[in-house]
Amino acid sequence: MKIIVHRGTNQVGGSCIEVCTNEARIIFDVGEELPDKFQSEREKKLLIVDDLFVNSKTSDRKIDAIIISHNHGDHIGLIDLTKEDIPLFIGKTSADVHNTICDFTSKGKKIKKHKYLVHEKSFNIKDIVITPFLVDHSAYDSYAFMIEGNGKKVLYTGDFRSHGAKGRITEWFYKNPKTTNSDVLLIEGTNLYKDNYIAETETHLGKRAEEFMRKTKGNVFVLQSSANIDRVVQIYKAAKRTNRLLLVDIFTANILAQMPSSIPNPETFNDVKVFYPYWLTQHLFKEENKSSLANKFAKYKLQKSELKQRTDLCVLVRENMLWDIEKRMNYSESSVIYSKWEGYKTDKKVETFLTFFRKNNCVIESIHTSGHADTNTIKDFIKYFKPKKIIPVHTETPKKYVDLFGDIVVEIKDGIEYSV
Ligand SMILES: [Zn+2]
Ligand SMILES: [Zn+2]
Prior knowledge:
Layout: E1 2-7, E2 16-20, E3 25-28, E4 65-67, H1 73-76, E5 88-91, H2 92-104, E6 115-117, E7 123-125, E8 128-135, E9 142-149, E10 152-156, H3 167-175, E11 184-188, H4 202-215, E12 220-223, H5 229-241, E13 245-249, H6 250-256, E14 272-275, H7 278-286, H8 291-295, H9 304-309, E15 313-317, H10 322-328, E16 335-338, H11 348-359, E17 363-366, H12 375-385, E18 389-393, H13 398-405, E19 417-419
Parallel strand pairs: 3-4, 4-5, 5-6, 10-11, 11-18, 12-15, 12-16, 13-14, 13-15, 16-17
Antiparallel strand pairs: 1-2, 1-19, 2-3, 7-8, 8-9, 9-10
Helix pairs in contact: 4-5
The chain binds zinc ion (ZN) (2 copies).
């Protein structure tokens, strides 16, 4: 078996990994590069893989499958550009959330004709057997993979952690007898640049959010990603324990509607209501076939007068909703939970959003934890997996793996073939 990390040996995001035999070629993830936090104008590097994209060079060896670990843009972002006849595999909820995001943004086409990944259900692509394992990550329905072929075993972790709601599931992956003694472990190392980093658990974060909400007299506005479901759950629980009504916008409502019934959503939880951001709603009604996305939740809408008057709300918001907050909601004595990566604070829209609240004397508290593994989780992985070789991916500091685990770590370069 051979491994080619087309992108990711020395960067976070934009992942693309090929695993192949003489018979089969499989691509894991087709990610778009993340924006450069220091040079936003920097041009994105082109990802060159024969036979993968519509305009790629063709060889005599077609790609047999594209397998997507999860729906973050740095793993699925280039899917629109790939050849349509390559079979695509992705988790069901992951695909549904991706398609909902496409419905609401001009970016990206919906995916169709895909096959679903199911936890621990192995499938064959020619002479390669793939077994997906659900893992805990900030994207719901994320998978790691065991890849077997030519008598060899390779593991690819995708993005993972163990301090979220599905921590036990990650544990099942690394403590599973099937996954030990792999020939190669392709493992992400996003957080390894921070020495001995210990991540706060989502549950602990929820307790902090609760304490913060209790201290706030007015409404609490939470700036977070709508697709970070673990976080929505923690914020919902904190709101409930402090007698607040959770208010989500029409986009978040559509995302939550894709989730299992245990996840709070306006259709089945009577303490979750919906509001319609003005510009987004206008846009939905102007576009063909999109009004149903808005109409679907009409009966769960919080009435205009309540939206203006109530001070017991916990509102999930995005930066571009400032107009709605200012004109249509009550923000006196309110506060903000900033629940995203700190680096986004330099983004113009985020800055404007936070400045508005600061000027209105509202307290802003950062309550966030990483979507990626901390050092202890990575050490546990290596301890239980006992891999013969480790190839770090999705990291800017592959050398830290060498520092921690010594000479079983192989540092390869993007695009170079590695024989297993
Ligand atoms: Zn990623
Ligand atoms: Zn991710």
